[in-house]
Amino acid sequence: MKAQQQGFTLMELMIAVGLVAILTAMAVPAYVGYGQRSARATVEGDLAAAAAAMERHKSQNFTYKGAATGTTFPANSPVDAAAGQQKYTLSIIFLNNAGNVAAATDTITGYEIQAVSTGLFDKSKTEALKINHLGRKCYKKLAVGVTTCVIGTDDANWP
Asked: Measured between alpha carbons, how far is 5 from 17 in angstroms, rounded to an integer?
């Protein structure tokens, strides 16, 4: 009677390693994509909350003037992320009567709140989202020389 063979052959081990590599190659991009979609959904909510905070500021002060990122609303998204782990940076752009960026001496009649991704997930996939005092929105994937989206020109829907 022949002794029973113990263990695996090299071919069996290589097949198992190959299968694990294929499954990993499919799972990692899906996981990273989930994280990006989750962060984008969070910043969309944070932008809506920031717009509400701006309207609260105006109702209390009768002007948007004096509102500031970091005091009127948080400067980063997600708000509860540890330092260096924020996915987006938020900023306010004040607008004058003509809808242009307001100078220091202009009367401020509107605003745009912008969120720009920090590139924490992937520096090649940065993006900008905006909302203004009228509730209009824009979205744009950023590239070399493109640093923001333009409301009324770029995609009006957040992805």
From this structure: 21
- The answer to whether 155 touches 136, Cβ cutoff 8 Å, is no
CA-to-CA distance for 106 and 81, rounded, in angstroms?
Answer: 36
What digits encode the pLDDT tens for the residues 132-144? 999 899 988 888 7
**Burial letters for 18-41: b for 16+ Cβ neighbours within 10 Å, e otherwise?**
eeeeeeeeeeeeeeeeeebeebbe
In three-state secondary structure terms, 15 is helix
Smallest CA-to-CA distance from 68 within 104, 98, 107, 113 is with 113
Q: How far apart are CA 62 and CA 55, in angstroms?
A: 10
Q: Is 70 exposed, middle or buried (0-12, 13-18, 19+ CB in 10 A)?
A: exposed
| pLDDT, tens digit (0-9, with 9 covering 90-100), for 3-42 | 676 778 889 899 999 999 999 998 887 777 777 788 888 8
104's tokens = 């220091």
Peptide bond into 78 cis (omega under 30): yes
Residues sharing a CB contact under 8 Å with residue 99, sequence separation 6 or more, in sequence order: 110
